[in-house]
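Try this one yourself first.
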């Protein structure tokens, strides 16, 4: 039986927009302006999420993902030709930028609606060739290993830190690099300290990012390192 063709951009846009209120946002990063569609109205998302098993946080665009996208554009020489797995991809912004700058990107999320949004954003930025799959960090049964593991806003739940650490060890190649982005939450810094005590060398870099849904700026921390 032939594999069904994936939905076109207009079909995917209609599908998502019928479920959640999408906003188009433009970000000048690197040598171009990126258009990213996401939900910016959290109250409207709360209404749309009624009946869902898990709240679709990934449909929101977080400042941490903007900071991570900036990092990949700035360090494009380092990621060129590297295999990169984006965890908790959500709207997919960092992975899309990394792919455009030559990384061999795969995106994964726990919810299909997030992967649909990843694909929508890739299509409207004319970035092709990103495989995507559903996955649960608590039951990681994928054998592929990557040069780079990355994720924005994936360390907020302390109960998932154990599973993330195990996933990092399983999915990262020897001498591979971990690149995480977080809005300087205490639990993320605690997780970073734990990793350092357990064989990881991590560097902390902070940057200021314009807030997405309100006025002002917010601080984002990038945790960058590798396992000893």
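Now uncover the answer:
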């Amino acid at each position: 039986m032939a594999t069904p063709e994936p939905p076109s951009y207009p079909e995917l846009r209609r599908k998502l927009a019928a479920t959640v209120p999408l906003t188009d946002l433009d970000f000048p990063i690197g040598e171009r302006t990126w258009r990213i569609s996401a939900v910016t109205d959290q109250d409207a998302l709360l209404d749309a999420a009624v009946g869902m098993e898990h709240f679709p946080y990934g449909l929101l665009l977080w400042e941490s993902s903007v900071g991570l996208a900036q990092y990949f554009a700035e360090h494009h020489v380092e990621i060129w030709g590297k295999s990169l797995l984006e965890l908790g991809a959500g709207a997919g912004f960092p992975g899309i930028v990394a792919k455009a700058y030559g990384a061999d990107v795969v995106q994964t999320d726990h919810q299909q609606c997030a992967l649909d949004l990843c694909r929508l954003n890739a299509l409207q930025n004319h970035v092709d060739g990103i495989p995507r799959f559903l996955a649960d960090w608590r039951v990681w049964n994928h054998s592929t290993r990557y040069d780079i593991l990355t994720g924005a806003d994936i360390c907020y739940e302390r109960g998932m830190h154990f599973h993330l650490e195990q996933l990092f060890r399983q999915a990262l190649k020897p001498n591979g690099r971990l690149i995480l982005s977080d809005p300087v939450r205490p639990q993320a810094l605690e997780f970073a300290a734990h990793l350092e005590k357990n064989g990881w060398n991590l560097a902390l870099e902070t940057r200021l990012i314009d807030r997405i849904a309100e006025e002002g700026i917010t601080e984002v921390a990038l945790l960058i390192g590798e396992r000893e």
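Discussion: The helical segments are 9-17, 42-48, 63-74, 76-79, 93-100, 112-124, 161-171, 186-197. The longest strand covers residues 172-182.
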